[in-house]
Amino acid sequence: MKSILLLSLFLLSTLQASAQMRTFTDKQGRTMEAELINVVGSQVRLKRADGAAFNVAPTVFSEEDQAFIQLWMLRKLNERDNLLTTSAKSSKTRPREASPQEVMGRESQGIEFELWEALYKVSLENESDLTLKDFRAEYRIHILRSDLAAQKRNQGKPEIISGKIDLPPIAPHATFEFETVKAKMLNSALKPGWVYSEGGDRESEDQIEGFRIRIYFKDELLVDWANPTSLLKNRW
Questions:
Q1: Cα distances (angstroms) measured from residue 21 to each of 24, 34, 175
Q2: Alpha-carbon gap, residue 147 to 77, rounded angstroms
Q3: pLDDT digits over 22-61, tens only?
Q4: Rounded distance, CA 88 to CA 163, Å?
Q5: Equal fold, 20-79 vs 84-231
Q6: Is 75 helix (H, G, I), strand (E, B) or coil?
Q7: Where are the domains of the chain?
Q8: Reported CATH class of domain 20-79
Q9: Each residue of 88-102: pLDDT tens digit?
Q10: Domain 84-231, CATH
């Protein structure tokens, strides 16, 4: 029984080792069995079946192998936190008087409304030695539509404003910045001499609750970032 177990473990380790090997083909049609073991700058480090290891530029290989290597490099860099650094800062426009058409069904002759817009300014820093191409971002702004005459703090209805952007090529160690779509927000205040029949706050203000962004290379999800991080627990 012990010998069978040892044989099974040996076969499993052999299969795992061989699964890491790949037949790579260069542009001249020459092939070799090798394993990708590291990213070194804009090159990869390969280990051949005979044990020899060396660095090589992905461009020497066939288009199919280049695509395989590119995705492997991005995954590897992302695992090491050496791919993209993401940050986002909320911003808002100055409030102005809202028209009856802009108050989202909350109009009342005893209430004054102000309209403002919320957005995020996003920064993506390429930490790698690669030019990042074929990337796109999908994001969500989380807001709270505050209730009129709220009886307690942060009483309202959560809402998500979504957007997306195809990212331009980002050069090595360069930063790309963009602004999200704008979310229309409202402030309200009771006019002098008016009260709510059941009490509650005389003023309300829609709130910016947070921001989440997902960054894809083609169809591969590489980055899922949020501020606050608790948003990562939510379903996308």
A1: 9, 5, 35
A2: 45
A3: 999 999 999 999 999 999 999 999 999 999 999 999 999 9
A4: 14
A5: no
A6: helix
A7: 20-79, 84-231
A8: mainly beta
A9: 999 999 999 988 778
A10: 2.60.40
